[in-house]
Amino acid sequence: MKKYIIWGVSLLFATLACAQDIENHLEKKDTINLNEIMVVGRHKLSNYRQEKTLSSIDDFLEKSNKITMIKRGNYAWEASLNNMNSNRLSITIDGMQIFGACTDKMDPITSYVDVSNLEKVSVGSGQEGTEHGHCVGGGIDLQLPQSTFGVSGLKTSMDVGYETNGNYKTTGLDMEYSNHKFYLNADGIYRKSDNYKAGGNKEVLYSQFEKYNISLQSGYKLSRYESLDAHIIYDKATNIGYPALPMDVSLAEAFITSLTHHYANDSTFIKSLETKIYFNTITHIMDDSKRPVVPIRMDMPGWSDTYGFYSKASIKENKHNVIFNFNGFYNRSLAEMTMYPNDTNQPAMFMYTWPDIRTLYTGVYAKDSYRFNENETLSTSLRFGFHKNRIAKKTGLESLQIFYPEIDASKSRFLTSMSSNYEIKKHKFDVAFGLGYGERAPTVSEGYGFFLFNSFDNYDYIGNPTLKNEKAIEANLKANYHYKKFHIGIESSYFHITDYIIGEIDATLSPMTIGANGVQVYTQLNDATIFDVYLNSSYQLSKTFSVNATVGYNYGKGSNKEPLPLIKPFSYLAEINYNTSSFNAAIQLEGNGNQSKYSRFYGEDETPPYAVLNLNLGNIFYINNQKTVLKYGIENIFDTNYSTYADWNNIPRQGRNMYINLSFVLQ
Predict the structure, then answer these.
(1) Residue of 314, 253, 319 lying closest to 283 (CA atoms)
(2) What does the pLDDT look like over 215-234, one tens digit per residue?
(3) HSE on the CB side for 320, CA within 13 Å?
(4) What is the pLDDT, as a whole number, of residue 21?
(5) Residue 624, φ and ψ in degrees, nearest 5
(6) How far apart are CA 648 and CA 603, in angstroms?
(7) Is residue 342 a contact partner of residue 296, using CB atoms and an 8 Å limit?
(8) How far apart are CA 62 and CA 64, in angstroms?
């Protein structure tokens, strides 16, 4: 292991004298610029340099510098941006608010779509990500394909993939038809994996899953300037194992639908107007029936229903480019737990873990990008919102009043967000500097959760309806220098968060979960600090060869002088690429340093350093004028057994894995 680390760091700093054009860099493994739009879907098969045509959305998101996926198993990873988990992020699907139905975060929003559904992903760091909702860490919007009117007729494509580790099989089919007035897109994808194996051929039990996803999109052109789109996504996953948790999932099911009206006319004051109404419903059932020995059997179903809308307008006048977004949603979150003692003579115990929380939100967002000249731009954004929670179950209210006797059934909040960013672009360099302030409301679990077990620190958690809004002041800097074939860039963010929401042990309470260490109640630190910096560099050696490298450093500490949990240690990536019009190859070394500043106070332990080597190859060729894309390679070539800081309870990651993806594009 040590020799891999030494070799990796040596290669890394050797390549820090190197660069290539940043747009080409976005096509490769590491996505640097979080403000850019990142193409991910099979709708863009011409971008055959993508490592795996059939990679999951989780795999794709993890390629970004500032995004880390928290893993509790082989499926449904939770996105973390700027070292902040999904509680502090705004994650949407095409601007639609969707909320998971699992109290243990076993169903993040990203798990209910697939690459076959998406055209691109937009990531905004900090207050740059507030177009669709309030956050302190940033926003991720998984964007659906745009209208595709034309005379292309019928097009189809088919994808098949296989990976040796876990006997992982994937199949996808996409069909689209369009003319001047009407289009119809349909796609489906199926994924199935057995238990995967960690390095050293060690099987990781309860890491299997099976999933299929179906999407249907249709549109009709009402006039030259107007069109109407309808979209339906159905996603169902079954038999999902979570090796890092005490329970698995027998069903995770989502139905997502929307109707959108588009207006676009460059000759009018309002250049475009997009109005969407939507509905989504999620059912999630936790299940321990396949675990051979548990202290007590439990059924834990959860449901989440969301109704929402947004209306977004863009105006371009003189040097101003203005966006307005008026949006709102109504959500119902309900979860329950029934415990069945092993002694059948004892009665079952029932309680609401989310006592039917109803959330109403409405807000307005405005952003103005003022262009002083062709080189300088000042962007300013504001978001104001009204947020209201209500406990609909009387028994749930009475349960929480045991701990908070004075609370009412409802709680209203006003939320504010603002940011400003100055950018200057010259021939050889560009620099951007931004400031922001944002607030967020507590999540359903933080505000109203009732004895939610966290296997990370082995404590039960109780929500706190009296929490204040969490607030953050941020500063960010981004600079890039280009000289011929050389590029080097730095990107850094600083967050000072007040009223930081986190659990605190209450020794007067007894846990509900057998074997738990105790009970924590959500409370707030006076403040917390999070900082990150990334250095990126690349060099185009020739028309076909290029090298690039990235190093990153992250820091997080609370006002109690304890390190914050899940802060990424020193990280690095080095890559050598070979690209022609029909063939590409890349060898990548990626790893993390030792997690020396871990948070024992919050249940973490030290994670040792690791380094893994990957080889990715791809071909594009034609059979009877039909495009075929072949992707293949080996991940973790040396079969390293390792865990990262973001692997729940230190579950090991995959060992050596050989994969092949084949895509046929039929006209």
Answers:
(1) 253
(2) 999 999 999 999 999 999 99
(3) 14
(4) 33
(5) 55, 45
(6) 11
(7) yes
(8) 5
